[in-house]
Amino acid sequence: MMDPFTDEYFMKKALQEAAMAFDKGEIPVGALVVAHNTIIARGHNLTEMLNDVTAHAEMQAITAAANYLGGKYLKDCTLYVTLEPCQMCAGALYWSQISKIVFGASDLQRGFKKMGSQLHPKTTVVGGVLAEEAADLMQRFFAARRK
Amino acid sequence: MMDPFTDEYFMKKALQEAAMAFDKGEIPVGALVVAHNTIIARGHNLTEMLNDVTAHAEMQAITAAANYLGGKYLKDCTLYVTLEPCQMCAGALYWSQISKIVFGASDLQRGFKKMGSQLHPKTTVVGGVLAEEAADLMQRFFAARRK
User: Which residues form the CMP/dCMP-type deaminase domain (chains A, B) (predicted)?
Assistant: First the structure.
């Protein structure tokens, strides 16, 4: 039997979070934390609504996941996020010792790879999952803002 | 007349925040945000109490300062922090476009300099202010934990 819980399956859910940010006029980035095939935390970018540069989707999902687990380490968890994390979020993920990060579109300007941020040695990374859908949402957002 | 509002003056206040973290059994790091010689936000490390790796002193001070100012950019502000920021906090400070960062003790293992994090081009940095006091507090904390 095929495993329904693929990276694409969870990334679609993260894209739904990103769409919620889009609808609020926020840069459309969504994130989930998954443990044992269960979504334990969700977040979407709220930097405008909260007037807070730290309110990225990943940060909220990390805090919510730790709250759910009752411990601050996300050792058996996977973060799904529609856009490559920035250095702040990569730094938070470093501290969380998360097992796996799956991201959608690359951020060639402010992504953690370009910025040279370090992840925890125990963390594996997969990029490019449903990248076109994530990038398309971003492009539509910025095109609408320019009008 | 001598300016009473020196970096040492505000760092002493940040050390008081660090001492509050110490008393709660948290790694003793304290932070302030200052605008026009007025302390507009304070924070101390609460990662254990909140079960949250993102609850560093700087992150709380950044969020509180933006809340006070009603805007997410800290362009005319200075962050005082007793320990060199990590890559997460450096990343948050990058987004905030803060004018100046003053830190106490260097963190040679996990500090943003060692980790290669990038600050905003508009941000100036001063390190080593009351560094011995900050380092002493850290050493006493870890010595007590080893007992």
Answer: 5-115
Question: What is the residue type of A105?
Answer: A
The per-residue pLDDT for range A23-32, each reduced to its tens digit, is: 999 999 999 9
The pTM (predicted TM-score) of the whole model is: 0.96
Chain A contact residues (CB < 8 Å to B): 47-48, 51-54, 59, 62-63, 66-67, 70-73, 86-92, 94-96, 115-118
- Examine the pLDDT at A61 and tell me if it is beyond 90: yes
Helix, strand or coil for residue A33?
A: strand
| Active site (annotated) includes residue A132 | no
pLDDT (average), residues B23-48: 98
Residue B147 burial (10 A CB sphere; 0-12, 13-18, 19+): exposed
CB < 8 Å to A53, chain B: 62, 66, 72-73, 92, 95-96
Catalytic-role residue among A8, A17, A26, A58: A58
Reduced to 3 states (helix: H, G, I; strand: E, B; else coil), residue B120 is coil
Tell me what pLDDT residue B3 has. 85
Nearest residue of A to residue B92, measured between CA atoms: A88
Secondary element (H or E) of residue B103: strand B100-105
CB < 8 Å to A48, chain B: 72
Which among B145, B137, B143, B117 has a CA at the least distance from the CA of B28? B137
Q: Which CATH topology does A13-127 take?
A: Cytidine Deaminase; domain 2 (3.40.140)
Residues sharing a CB contact under 8 Å with residue A93, sequence separation 6 or more, in sequence order: A58, A62, A79, A85, A101, A119, A120, A123
Domain coordinates in residue numbering, chain A: 13-127
pLDDT at B30 over 90: yes
Report the binding-site residues of A for Zn(2+): 56, 86, 89
Answer whether B61's CB lies under 8 Å from B40's CB: no
Q: How far apart are CA A121 and CA A134, in angstroms?
A: 27
